Amino acid sequence: MKVNTYILLIIFCLISSIDFAQTTGNRTVAITLPVVTLLDIEPAGTITLNFSAPTEAGQPVTVPASNNTKWINYTSAIASGGLTRRITASVNQVIPGLNITVQAAAASGSGGGTLGTAGAQVTLTTTAINIITGIGGAFTGNGANNGHRLTINLAVSNYANLNSRTNTPVIITYTITE
């Protein structure tokens, strides 16, 4: 019996001295993320803002109601270095006696990332002015009800400069830039 015990003890020592080794491997994976800057106004189509004539002499023309049917959607993948983007707005022409204002609301919808911060209402001119700042790597979601809702207003700035106009097209240009 002692021999069997010694044999079992020797076998046990041999088994316990076997190293259970782990091996690892690695592979290099190349990842490319392009710099992306896309902007879109949703839904497509024009906005019509019409003044109404007064029905009583001595009353001013009735200013059209605010329009808030448009949304700014964007996708932004930025290069490293802490850069941010901004969105500006401008018009192709200023109509004497009238002000066109725009205000972007805070981002809402299905987007994510570092969405921009909407600024205060601005009066549009032919010089671009910031309406959204601080855009990082982000996307707003696509279509209406995603991104920043735009509120556009028309107001009389100087009655002395008003002239009757029919369908005077004013183009509002939105630009995303660093």
Describe this protein with a few key phrases.
178 residues, mainly beta, 7-stranded antiparallel sheet, 8% helix
Q: Report the total helices.
A: 1
Which percent band covers the strand fraction? 25-35%
Relative helix content: under 10%
What coarse outline follows from CA principal-axis ratios? elongated
Order of helices and strands: HEEEEEEEEEEE
Based on secondary structure, the structural category is mainly beta
Largest sheet data: 7 strands, antiparallel
Measure the end-to-end span.
87 Å
Structure description:
The strands form 2 sheets. Strands 1, 2, 4, 5, 7, 9 and 10 form a 7-stranded antiparallel beta sheet that branches. With 178 residues, this protein is mainly beta.
Q: Topology, please?
A:
Elements: H1 2-16, E1 36-42, E2 67-77, E3 85-91, E4 98-104, E5 112-113, E6 117-118, E7 122-123, E8 129-135, E9 138-139, E10 148-156, E11 172-177
Antiparallel strand pairs: 1-2, 2-9, 2-10, 3-8, 3-11, 4-7, 4-10, 5-9, 6-8
Provide a short characterization of the protein structure.
The protein is 8% helix and 35% strand.
